[in-house]
Amino acid sequence: xxxxxxxxxxxxxxxxxxxxxxxxxxxxxxxxxxxxxxxxxxxxxxxxxxxxxxxxxxxxxxxxxxxxxxxxxxxxxxxxxxxxxxxxxxxxxxxxxxxxxxxxxxxxxxxxxxxxxxxxxxxxxxxxxxxxxxxxxxxxxxxxxxxxxxxxxxxxxxxxxxxxxxxxxxxxxxxxxxxxxxxxxxxxxxxxxxxxxxxxxxxxxxxxxxxxxxxxxxxxxxxxxxxxxxxxxxxxxxxxxxxxxxxxxxxxxxxxxxxxxxxxxxxxxxxxxxxxxxxxxxxxxxxxxxxxxxxxxxxxxxxxxxxxxxxxxxxxxxxxxxxxxxxxxxxxxxxxxxxxxxxxxxxxxxxxxxxxxxxxxxxxxxxxxxxxxxxxxxxxxxxxxxxxxxxxxxxxxxxxxxxxxxxxxxxxxxxxxxxxxxxxxxxxxxxxxxxxxxxxxxxxxxxxxxxxxxxxxxxxxxxx
Length: 464
Fold this sequence. Notes:
The chain is an alpha/beta fold. It is 39% helix and 18% strand. It has 3 domains: 136 residues, 3-Layer(aba) Sandwich (Rossmann fold), CATH 3.40.50; 116 residues, Hect, E3 ligase catalytic domain fold (Alpha-Beta Complex); 93 residues, no CATH class.
């Protein structure tokens, strides 16, 4: 198109948009700028992988502009991307900045307007935000309320309760649907559901994605395939463990041989690991993984969720290992096995109750309850001079240096006496009763050279 033609077209378009006749047919001239309240806009999007943050910001901002049209204008914007609704406002970067601005007398705005209730709040968060804003003379506007929110109004209180329950229902329903889908995909199809491939395997494409829309975009599903570099190490670990070698011996042997640990072998997929050495935990996790038998297994671990108190519980998310009866196992083998089921079961029995030379199983009452006060690792069960004991080498299973902390040793019978006093139990209480009380209260015993302490849900009790 020639330059003159483009100029003509531009002029004609300008006349067309200014024409009242055409404006009546659908042009939106927008509200005239008026003086009034100064608003701070707040919006949020939970994911950046499945949503376009800019588009999400735009539609939320548009809703707010329509709401405040004729009554003020938006002068500043705060938008959190990639933050879940369960995050408290002070844990969201942009929301935390907005909270600081609310407390500032020279903040430059008179009210805040939130793009959508579910985008801004979860649980009872809105009550705390409204109370804070009221103390500092700032209004809170919601599109669902059609204007400023007043929690002293019975209708507004009922609206907030309804919106809160609706938001909670959306979270729970989405989680239940996702969990049910993952259960079916594992059980019926042996589907690999994502995450890092177990050490000893690598991911390879296994066909187009079953979702037609995803398949048209080129996405595919993946399956596990033995890794030629690391699969022999997994087979060696199971064979040596079944032959009777301890986990500590296996760790030392791997480090002496210079075998790359999982974090060193694949640093891009293990950026959260900083240490490039084998540890007892890494070996034990490999020996406890049933997927090396070729079956897909899901729901070995779960995380406690409390949807009603999103802020406080999120900081204390507790991952728990589920009992085997809650595992979901595929109905058929989904990938190549590295070990047999017999070898896996034999190794698990060795870990749970290893007999001594006389054929008797050694019992450790405080197994899994002791934590080292130096390095925060769980202490190992160790038979010392014919009696149960516990030790921690602080992750140094190889050669020791001058900087290596001394190994921590504790006898079980000495622990029982100290813990009986801490739990206010009779001195003559049976050891099994003391251990049962500890497990029932879900406590953790922190051990040091100087003594032990019992971490309870209430304040810590010190043992003598």
